[in-house]
Amino acid sequence: MPAKKSKKGPTKGSGGKGRRALEGKSGTLPAEQRHWYKDKQRAKAARRPGPAGAPAAAGQGGERRRTDSDLLVGRNPVVEALRAGVPAARLFLVNSLDPDDRVNEAARIAGERGVEVLEVTRAELDRRCDSNGQPGAAHQGIALQVRPYRYRTPEDLLDTALRSDAPPLLVALDGVTDPHNLGAIVRSAAAFGAHGLVIPERRSAGVNMTAWKTSAGTLARLPVAQATNLTRTLEGFKKAGVFVVGLDAGGETPVPDLELATGPLALVVGSEGRGLSRLVRETCDVVASIPIGDTESLNASVAAGVSLYEVARRRAADTGQGA
Fold first, then answer.
1. From CA 76, how far away is CA 81, in angstroms rounded?
2. Reduced to 3 states, what is the DSSP secondary structure of residue 55?
3. Collapsing DSSP states into helix, strand and coil, what is residue 159?
4. pTM
5. Secondary structure of residue 143 in the 3-state scheme
6. pLDDT score at 83
C-alpha cells in the first residue's frame, strides 16, 4: 500500500498567527486596565535617577511639599516612629499576623492618633513594598505609610521669627548630609528656643525617617524650610535685620565672646567634612569657633548644640533670667 502523501505544503507565512499572537489572548486586559499597572509604573519612576534634591512643589500657606511618601516597615521601626509622633496616614497589618507587644502597641498608638489601621493580606503588603521601591523588604507583617513632610519657605520662617516676642533665632545648615545630624540639630534647636531650621534643597540631608527618629519627635513642632539658594536666603535675612553667624573651627570669634548672640540671629552650621562653603562664609557677619582642646573638630550636631546653648545662656543673662 503506497504511503499516504502529506497535504502540508511549504509555509510561506504565518497566515496571521504571528499578528494574533502579538495582540495577546482575548481574555487578557490591556496593561493600563490592570489595577497593579500604575503602581508598577510609579515604582519604576521612583527608581530612575533624577536631579538630587529636586525642588518640591510649592503648597499653600508658605509650605513646600514632597511629592513622594515613605513606607516604613518592620515592627521595631514602626513602633519607634509612632512613639516619636511621625505624621502617618495608614498602618498596615497582615490579617494572619500573630500579634506581639510591638504590634499591639503600634495599633493602640495609631488608634489614639487617628491613624487609619488596615488589615491586608501578606501578598498585598508585599506588593505595596515593591511599589514603594522596597522589593523583598522584611516587613514582618507590619508597615506604616508616612505622610509627605511639608517644608516651609525661608520667608515664612523669618516672618514667624520676627513676630515672636523673643529675638529671632534661626538655624541654617550648609551642606549637612547626614540625616542623623539633621535630626540631632533639630532637637537642640527646639530645646534652646530656635524658631526654625533652613536647609538647602540640594546636597543636603532632608527630613526622612532617620531624621524623624533622631529628632525624638521634635520635628513635629520645629518647622524646617528648604532654600533654593542658601546664600541668597541668608542675604535676605541680613536685609531684614538678622545677623548671620557661621560656625567654623577657624572662626575668629570664640562662641562665648559672641556679642551678637542676644540680638536677631541666624546660626549657620557647616558640613561634616569641609565646614562652611566659601560663598556662605563670605556672607556671614561673623565666623565663630568653639574653644576646644586637642580635639581636631566637633561633630556638626555637637557643635550646633554647644553654640545654641551658649546663645540661650547669654540671652537669659541679658534679660536677667539666669542661665
1. 9
2. coil
3. helix
4. 0.69
5. strand
6. 87
